[in-house]
Amino acid sequence: MIKTRLRPLLILLLLGLFALVIYQTVSMSRTRAVEDLQQSASADLNRYVLSLQQELDRYKDLPKLLSSHSELVNLLLLPESDGVFRANLYLEQVNETIGASDSYLMDTEGNTLAASNWSQESTFVGRNFSFRPYFRDALEGREGRYFALGTTSKKRGYFFSYPVKYRENILGVIVVKIDLNDIETDWNDPQTDILVTDEDGVIFISTRSEWKFRTLKPLPQPDLQRIVSSLRYGDHQLTSLPILERKRLLNSEVVTLIEGDRIDNQALDGVETRQYLQQVRTVPEAGFNVSILADLKSIERRVINNALLAGFIYSALVFLVLLLMARRRIAHERTRFKRQQTLSLERSEARVRAIIDNTHAGLITLDAHGLIESFNPTAEKLFGYHADLISGEYFSKLVGQEDRAVCWQHISHQNEETQPAELMVEASGVRANGSAFPIELIIGRMSDSSASRFVVTIHDVTERKENEEQLREARDQLEYRVSERTQDLTRANARLLQEVEEHKNTQNELIQTAKLAVIGQMSAGINHELNQPLTAIRSYADNALSFLEMGKTDPVNTNLREISGLTQRMAKIIAPLKEFSRKTTGQSALVSLKAVRDGAMSIMYGRLDKANAKIEWPTKLDQVFVLGDTLRLEQVVVNLISNALQAMEEHEQSDKWIEIGLERQASRLLISFRDHGPGIPESELGKVFEPFYTTKKAGQGLGLGLSISHRIIESMNGRLSVANHPLGGAIFTISLPTADAQASAVELE
User: What is the per-residue DSSP string for 320-354?
Assistant: First the structure.
């Protein structure tokens, strides 16, 4: 118990010690790594400064040497002479020999008289560089040094200048320009970055191209204006590097830079910063500073590696100590276990014997030949034998004749690898009085050092067999009842199918009745339309008789042709009624909306004229097709137009107007019918498609039209919906699949 309580304290102590070791390792490793990086960066910086100084020293005395050459002095004394050509050739030869970028001679006004690039298109000859500081330094009698971008070549260059004198008088200035790109290319250490800045802190040489012509800190406006007016860096924007923080560290600085040229805070998402160890060396004669920036990532990697190594060593030591302690504890526990095992074995044997004697299963042990060795009390009760009397007898004596072969085969089998470890069978047991009873016996193999033995477990299953028989009888009775119930359900299903068929026929009859009702409502208009042609026919016939009696055949022919035309007109009036009244086939096919419009208008034109109403149909209906049935869709359209007319008649408005619109949605087409009537009460919108629902006056309908139309559209895989328009009136919308939907269905099939 005490050890259990001390275990959490020991774990906390080990974890605390582990944290202390890691902290000390990290602290010492970081300090050592920073010192090593400072030493390494300082050595590299000295090497870079020395190489840059050596490169500049190669050219620093060349302007002084060239200033005393007679060709250059003569040209300055006699600028109008033919000495220009000789001076150009001389400077070109000198430039090729010393490996400079350019060499050129200027007078006291800053005008270039001769140059090494005199034969090139971008020659300096004729250009004025009086604005350059190196020119002004030379005119004052000093050596000039200056770094800038060439105004002609737009390339970086370092300029050396020296006055050209004659008898202590300054006649002009000689300038040598060198290219420092080679030095920049040689500085290619991936762990460090090199910066060379002028006296204003502007970076003009860098191993990072994006840092060129940037400043180490924001420049004051006067300094920035001065640099811009000197054209030192051309049109480059002299913006400062995005430095977040500077921390002093011995003879160095730790600089935190934002990668990607951002000026956000490090806490903002997406901003990546990097820390550098910066050391600076001044090159006084050249007038610039050289800085080295060493990436601190190597320090973090070194610290992490040392921390991992320290953690591994600490863990290994702790594991070794715990292992030694565990081995000692195991040895102690093993001794104690042996003592307890001896006592437990004695108790176990006594407990096993008690279990065997008191178990409800019969337990019999057999030797390798199948002879009975022991008989527990339960087995004595089951078989009616006393243990002393049955011992030494063959086990087969207790089993029925038909089951002895299976038991004996298992007992007598010698190959234990292929033989199952135990045999479980249902058999017939034989009591001492010769009676039989059902038993379940399990013969298991026991192996010891001497030979194989068997233990037989026997259960009396008489009660279970009786229960199984009762279950069998109950199952048979249940199957009989299920069969009877199935027959009842089959008959009920047949009746239901018959009722559905009768309901379908009733629905079709209602549809047909509705169509006939519409035809009846149109009878007055049809009567008016047919009355006019009949009156005209009668008039033409009477005139024809009169002309025939007078012997004038030409007017007779004309009247007969007019009568023929009027009969054709009457046939066209009656044909849509006959087509509308016949029953549909119910098969879906491509339906032209133009045909639907023509059919509906031929039926409704009489009512529309009588009601003085107008219908606005969309254009190009001959190019619009839907999937459905022409006659059934035509019936729905006629019903919706009729309802719209009745709604506007009840509203008693003079301008009666029905708008029909089209809208495509994926593979479906929406056809909307909007009237300008009073609309439908919001509380009644959900009841519009219910059978026998109507807002019409008595005698104008049974309220089945919209219900039948709703079912017709659903049978064509469509949907009929209703809503009130925001500007007034009701709007019914039919949604039907288009020809594209049929093509997609064919592809899926």
Answer: HHHHHHHHHHHHHHHHHHHHHHHHHHHHHHHHHHH
Q: Are residues 405 and 448 in the same domain?
A: yes
Q: Which of the four pLDDT bands, split at 50, 70 and 90, describes residue 162? A: very high
* Cα separation, 159 vs 642, whole angstroms: 99
Alpha-helix residue ranges (DSSP H) falling in 150-268: 181-186, 221-229
Phi-psi region at 305: left, alpha or beta (left = phi > 0; alpha = psi -120 to 50) = alpha
- The mean pLDDT value for 408-434 works out to 74
Structure confidence at residue 546 (pLDDT)? 82
Question: Which domain does 621 fall in, by range?
Answer: 584-747
Amino acid, res. 430: V
pLDDT in tens, 40-61: 777 777 777 777 777 777 888 8
In a domain, 285, yes or no: yes
Q: How many CB atoms lie within 10 A of CB 36?
A: 13
Task: In whole angstroms, give the CA distance from residue 97 to residue 139.
Answer: 27
Q: Is 220 contained in some domain?
A: yes
Residues 173 and 195 placed together within one structural domain of the fold: no
Nearest to 207 by CA among 185, 228, 224: 185
The residue with tokens 């220009």 is 84
Could you tell me which residues come within 8 angstroms of residue 177 by beta carbon, excluding any fewer than 6 positions away?
A: 100, 101, 102, 103, 104, 150, 157, 158, 159, 160
pLDDT at 369: 78
Task: Flag whether 17 is in a domain.
Answer: no
The answer to whether residues 172 and 187 belong to one domain is: no
- Residue 413's CATH number: 3.30.450.20
Which pair of structure tokens corresponds to residue 216? 């180490």
Calculate the CA 234 to chain-centre distance.
Answer: 48
- Judged on CB neighbours under 10 Å (0-12, 13-18, 19+), 254 is middle
Query: What distance separates the 2 farthest-apart alpha carbons in the chain?
Result: 157
- 210 close to 130: Cβ distance less than 8 angstroms: no
* Residue 185 or 111, more confident: 111
The whole-angstrom distance between residue 160's C-alpha and the CA centroid of its chain comes to: 62
Boundary of a domain, candidates 128, 158, 177? 177
CA–CA distance, 50 with 52 (Å, rounded to integer): 5
Domain membership of residue 303 (yes or no) is no
Do 204 and 290 lie in a common domain? yes
Same domain, 67 and 94: yes
The interaxial angle of helices 523-549 and 553-581, nearest 10 deg, is 160
In 567-726, which ranges are E strands?
589-592, 613-616, 625-628, 656-665, 668-674, 719-724
The number of distinct structural domains making up the chain is 4
pTM of the full predicted structure? 0.38
Most confident of 201-205, 375-379, 522-526: 375-379
Q: Which helix (H) or strand (E) holds 17?
A: helix 2-57
Same domain, 591 and 728: yes
Q: Which residue has the tokens 């060709």?
A: 71
Write down which residue in 113, 148, 177 finishes a domain.
177
